[in-house]
Amino acid sequence: MWLTTQKLTGVGMLITLGIVYGDIGTSPLYVMNAIIDQAGRHETAAVTTVMLGSISLIFWTLMLITTVKYILLAMRADNRHEGGIFALYALVRNAAKWLIFPALVGGAALLADGTLTPAVTVTSAVEGLKSQTLGPVHFSGTQGWVLLVVTGILVGLFLVQRLGTQLIGWSFGPLMLIWFSFIGLVGLRSLLTDPGMLNALSPVYALRFLMSPDNHQGIFILGSVFLATTGAEALYSDMGQVGKWNIYGTWPFVYAMLMLSYLGQGAWVIHHATQLGVQHPDNPFYAMVPENWRMFAIGIATVAAIIASQALITGSYTLVHEAIGLKLLPRLRIKFPGSEKSQLYISTVNWLLCGVTLGVVWFFRTSSHMEAAYGLAITITMLMTTLLLQAFLRQRNHRLLATAFVGGFGLLEGLFLIASLAKFMHGGYVTLGITLLILTIMVFWYYGNQRRSAHVVDAEHVSLLDFLPQLQALSRDHEVPPFATNLVYVGHVTPDYAIKRAVVYSILDQQPKRAAVYWFVTVNEADTPYECSYTVETLGTRNVMDVQIYLGFKKPQRLNVYLRQIVNDLLAAGVLPDQTPRYSSVPGRQVGNFKFVMLNQQLQDLGAQDDLPALDRLLIGGRLLLQRICLSPQRWYGLEFSDVVEERVPLFIGHAPDRTLRRK
């Protein structure tokens, strides 16, 4: 089905407000500031043109990109109710090999942009306290104490991630409902002083402003306007947590409240044009709030910023988890602190994100400097999503719609990308540099594996069928001491039963390993998020098993648990001979012991392969280096407390003879 059915409920809509809209919902804190900074100083009459044109651009940007592209079109491309760029790639990857490029680039850019969102939102909120008095406490107008408070908030936020967010998540919805209601109410109050601002809803003002001599920046003003829709990708990514119908039901309310806030800020700016300059003294968002509401505004804005940051952090966990499942990133330790599948915690990602975010805060220091660097990477992600969505539409025979879609949104997002490139020298190089670093890791991990497989497919692979007689004979040879009841090799067995030569070499040559049953287990990533199934081929024997396990990209790799269940199923079906151990402390135990053998391919063997092209040598070497520093196979497959033997083997078994060697 192109459109799945999910329930629309009041509770679901409330939770959706807290989970989905944190990023896009806090954009009124800084978007107008960014526009004023970029637009520069104007005469009072020109300020009206600038505000009407800018807000018109904001309205139609939200309409076209957020509403039409993501809510009306992208959410139809759901992978068993899951969304996001990697879930979308899993749907279309069989359509064309080149689609891996937009998936890698878009995913890397999305992860990089996530480091700036917590920094800019929390800093923008806390800066509202500058020069304010709270009871006996007066906050100075300096930036130093702001940085300390922001650092404390962010460190505390990253510290609590390991405990899980299930309990605090329930409070996010009501708090964000208060936030949206507040910004809408305050915006409406300010808008009533100048109802003419409603003219900004006409696209005429947007087009007129882009070509107006009062717009000194030309199309580059779009770089600041784009900040209003930076959270649109989160709507699609978080679809699996809340359901698309709850997003459909809440977006009209959120859209209306956001526009009331922008219209209200525009009205305030027009009526206070003389107070604005290149160094404007007030953030229009806080300035339009009545004095006696100011502290509440700062408090609820800080809460909303924290919620937005939380959403980006958990979103990063989900994105990395999906990338690992699709073999686009190295293996990392993943924990599930809550009772929900969506409750993830990845320690490595958490602290890397914390370090980079704090680095961004102290490097840029002020929210206005962060705004100058914000949005460049996310425009790249949106363009990559457009390419993948075009492939999705073509896959479903909507060729005309696909062409119109990629042409229209490609042009629109291309303009935003060009406009955002103006931010490169103002700090955009930071997020672009982080994007390139993440992309480099993805390229080495994915293409290193591809090139390694291409070179070893013939010379380093053998047919498992050719060795069945030896394996059966070894299993019955009582002169060889028993090694294990169930001997398990985790690797890859192809549909025509090809297996790495190193596996057979380990069993028969290094030290013959006698076992009652030999298990050759392949763990395949499934396109569906929560797939959990397996197939078994006995190869005409009772002691050699080819097991193919299919796990969705959101399923944990608990290989020991899965394999024991498979053995119990086969024992019950009479496929396996009885394994009841003679001695056991567990009453009724029917399964014998397991021993897992992990083959550790060594980097130094790569240098002996003189026939490898230089690029392949680089990619394979990078992949093997990442394998050495990332999570070990034992920990990845949940085998920390299992009997695991690690054997070092060369990447290529045997080397070509050196023809220069001569006997004297």
From TrEMBL:
Topology within the bilayer: Multi-pass membrane protein
Annotated source species: Levilactobacillus tujiorum
Localization per record: Cell membrane; Membrane
Function of the molecule: Transport of potassium into the cell. Likely operates as a K(+):H(+) symporter.
Name recorded for this polypeptide: Probable potassium transport system protein Kup
Transmembrane segments: 46-72, 98-122, 142-160, 167-188, 218-236, 248-273, 293-324, 344-366, 372-393, 400-422, 428-447
Cell membrane keyword on record: yes
Keywords annotated in UniProt: Cell membrane, Ion transport, Membrane, Potassium, Potassium transport, Symport, Transmembrane, Transmembrane helix, Transport
Gene name per UniProt: kup
Domain K+ potassium transporter integral membrane: 13-458
InterPro entries documented for this protein: K+_transporter, K_trans_C, K_trans_N, Kup
Residues of the K+ potassium transporter C-terminal domain: 496-646
Pfam families: K_trans, K_trans_C
Family (UniProt): Belongs to the HAK/KUP transporter (TC 2.A.72) family.
Keyword Iron: no
